[in-house]
What we know:
Elements: H1 10-28, H2 38-60, H3 64-84, H4 93-112, H5 119-141, H6 144-173
Helix pairs in contact: 1-2, 1-3, 1-6, 2-3, 4-5, 5-6
Amino acid sequence: MTEEKRANPAPLGLSGFALTTLVLSTYNAGLLTSGSGVVLGLAAFYGGLAQLLAGILEWKGGNTFGYVAFFTYGAFWEWYFLTALGIFGNITAQGVGLVLIAFGIFTLIMWFATFKTNLGLFTTFLLLWITFFLLGVGSLTCNTLLVHAGGYTGILTAIAAWYTGLVQVVAESLNKKAPLGRAPLS
């Protein structure tokens, strides 16, 4: 009996994360100042739902890291979507800052798990925890400069995540090994 080939859910999760992060980070960096509502649909469906689905598929495939990462960041985007809609009532910049710092702590811990994976994941998670801390502290202190720095770092995070995900798609379509590079401790 032959085993059925299954698609790798990581490129979907990484792409949903990357595109949504890129668009939101463009606003956080101050590069665009109007029309930020465009992020909401992405947060609900591509950043949120697609990552939740990728997380479930990683779980089904036995990948604990992929499951925890995609499901958590998918839930983050769903939280962002519902929070931006005002579903939860009175939300303060300080409250949002606290949540962002908490996600920064989570991401820092997850970054440690990338030390022996590949350079793409290592770089994505490194930039992401820095992004969360910059945005979180910027929100807590109402410091626009830190929020803008977090936005620019978020743009770099999105590029790293997109590379990590899409290089796998291109490599598979060309029957090649994905050039993700060795992680620092591998």
